[in-house]
Structure formats: C-alpha cells, structure tokens
Amino acid sequence: MAEFWQQVVSGLAAGGVYGALALALVLIHRATGVINFAQGEMATFSTYVLWTLTTNHGLSYWPAFAIMLVVSFAGGVGIHQAVIRPVERGSQVRVVIITIGLLLLLNGLMTWIWSGEVKAVQSPFPGGTFDLGGVAIAYADIGTIAVCLGAVAVLWLFFQFTKVGLALRASAVNPAEARLVGVRVTWMLGLGWGLAATLGAIAGVLTAPSTFLDPNMMQAVLIYAFAAAVLGGIDSPMGAVVGGLLLGVGLNLLGTYASFVGSELRLPAALLVILVVLLLRPAGLFGRQQVKKV
Amino acid sequence: MTGLLELRHVEASYGPVQALRGISLSVPEGSVVAVLGANGAGKTTTLRAVSGTVRRSGEVRLDGKPLRGGPESAAKAGIAHVPEGRGTFTDLSVLENLRLGAYTRRDRSVKADVDTMTRYFPWLRERGDQRAGTLSGGEQQMLALARALMGRPRLLMLDEPSLGLAPLIVREIFRIVRELNEKEGLTVLVVEQDARIALNAAASAYVLEVGRVAVSGSSAELRDDEAVRRSYLGY
Asked: Given an 8 Å threshold on Cβ–Cβ distance, is B71 in contact with A179?
C-alpha cells in the first residue's frame, strides 16, 4: 500500500506540471482560439533564463525565479504583439502555423545560444523524503505540487476577483461585445499570452531538475499537457488542472502496476488518452459541448 | 442649436457594399430620438458608425468633440451601444455583466449603481450569480440595458430592443427607457423596426431609406402625415 501512495504523490507532482502547462494552453486557446505548439519551447527558453541567472550571474534561486517570471511574461506579451496579433484576424490555420514556426525558431535559437548539451538545473526544494504514515514522500514532490497549485490559485483569484481578470474573460468569450464596453481587447489578448508564458515557465523550471535541461526538454511534457487539456476540456481552466493531475497519477500507476507499460509506453499511453477522449467525449470532462445558436 | 450627438454626411460600407450614403442627424441633449426604416435601410449601421464598430467617414461629434477610433474610445467618451440581439456576455454571470458595464469608470460608486439597477429591474437582485445565457430573451434585453446604464452613459444607443420579444416585455422596456429619460435626463438614440412603439417613446425621428435620411421631424408630425405613414412606416 505504501508504494501505491508513494506513486500517487509523485504522480500528483508530475501531474501538477502537466496541469500548469495544460492551463497555459487553455489560456491561449480561450484568448486566441488556437493550440500554441510553441508553449513547450517557450517554457524551455524561460528555464534557460533561470539557469543563466543562477549559473553565470550568481543569483540565488528564488530571486532568479522572480526575474525569470517577469522576463517570461514580457516575452509572452512580446510574442503576441510581434507575430500573433498581425495574423489574429485571419484564419486560425495561419496562427497555428505561426506557433509551429515559433517552436522551430525558439528551438534553434536555444541551441545557438546555449548549445545542445544538457545542463543541470538545481531544485529549489531540499532533497530527501519524510515519512507520513509509513509512506516516504519526497520534499521535491510536495514542493512541486505546492508551486503548481499555488500558481493556479493565484491565477484563479485574478480572473475571478479583479476588474482586469473579468475584462480578460469577457474578451475571450465575446471580443466584439467587450470592445463596446470599453475593453482594449488586443491588450487583454496580449496579457493572456503573457500569463500563459509565465505559467509555462513555472512548469519548465519544475521539470528541469529531474530531466536535465536541453532545448528539447519540454517536448514530451507538452504532449502530456495536450492530453491533460483534452481530457479536462480544452476550454476549461479547471479541467486542464484536474486533467493534468489525473494523467500524472494514472500514468505513474500504470507504469508501476502494469509492468509491460514501463517508461517506453508512457507517451503512447498519453496519445491513447487524447484519442479516446476525442472519440468518446470531445468536450472533455469539464468542457461544455458547443451548441451553435441560430 | 447643436445636439449632444451630431452626424454630418456620415458614410460607411461593408466591403464593396455601401450601407450609409451620407447621413446627417442630430440628437439634442436629454431627448429620445428614433431611427426608423425598412430592413437594410442602414439603421443598425448608423449606430455602428457612431460607436466605431464599422469603418466610417464624415463627421461624428459628441458634445462638439469629434469622435475618433474604435468602440473602446466611444465607450470611454460616454456612448453605451446595446447591439441588436441582446448584447450580453452569455458565459458570464449577471453581476459580472453589470460590473463590465462600468468598466470605463474609475469612481467607487459602482456598487451603489448595481443597487440602483435592481430598483429598475427587481429580478436582478436574486439572479446575480446566474449565467446570463440562461436568462429569458426579455431578461437578457433588460440586462443589456442595465449593463449599458452601469457606464453612466451620456448617450444610450439601443438597436431593435423589441426584436423577438413579447409585446408586454417590449412595452416594459420602452416604459423604463422613457422613465430614465424623464427622471434622469438620459439621452437616447433608438433604432426600431416597430415604428408605432418607437414614435410613442421618441420626441423626434429620422426615417432612413437605402442609406439616406428620407424624412425627419417630430414624432407627432410623422405620425399624422398619411403619406409618410403609408410609404415608410407601413401601418
């Protein structure tokens, strides 16, 4: 039983990261109507920023973390202004292709700046485990879960209780109407990109200590985040987080108790989740079925 | 005399289709003015030209100052545009809709204004947390009106408030509009298909035909002119 709970906790930690990145995807999907394929590389880029600040500039972890959040936010807003906004009103296919181009561009840029070799990123949490009713729980797992859920909670409070958060939601659900009440919708969409980049950055730096940092670090995580977002419902912020946690725990248990799955079949299992959800319940667990009014 | 809102030779088009071919009209402060006409005459486009939701040329002045830019600037200048087909945020709650109506305001009396709205629309009080999309058509139209008023507009523009609503609810909406006009001095520009009910509420009206003003005058004049009534108002 102890092993079961241990796997659940570490699954929640992995799932928290999937959930955070999935939520970033949902934010952009709600604002711009597309899946941002560059979300993973944006997160990796942010992680490199953190690595540079701590390794080359001698900053300690949390100040560097704070600076990295600000840089990521500015980067997200900048990307929206520079390459997304000009094509936003055209077809969504164009925006999707832009995000794929962005993926390749960022990936190449990272290899060029930091070279392709793997780098070690320190964990902000103490190593080791503590005992909780016979279950050994890693501090790193608890820290990861806390940071992910904390970020999600802050974002939720922002959306629910601030004027700007409300304006951002209004811009996402009905941009024409939002402009009529005086909301600068393009600013709000830029803000959405900034928040998504920041959230993705958190997912990135929490992934790095266990996988090492290289330009392709987030590619697998992005697939898990896709699966989490689809499972929860691509338009549901809550669904993305719950989907991420379910997926993290599910994959961990599968790897432990179904020995034939192992680590090689984790990724195909996530793809199977995407396929099954899209076939059986396209709106996901929490998404609303789109009803077109005539 | 110049009005609160002045349009001079305003033109607007959707791509190659010209919808307004030089409209001039004036809405005096504290009055209710109606824009009438058949489908496709340019009524809706007139309001959209004022709020900047459609690209326009010509002159639009609010209180003597020319309006520039899109709908955000119009909202900031004090124009509340309630578009056709109940302009509410259906995914957001009733209360959130009202808060958004006050988006351009910086003062602290927004809460008090929500209370004022529940005086005009008592049902808003218990249904604040309900999603706007679950309201009935009439309730959504009233919510759209209440949301527009939350911005404390200088000019309220209503587009076809009667569209698809039961006569009783239409009468109630126009009663509230008149009450707001008489008690609070609210200036209103209303577009309406139903000429009879609009002429009852408005002091004066403009009748449009293919993007131009065909006839204008006081409501009483238009109502009593047999020829105008028959050829333009259809009753």
From this structure: yes
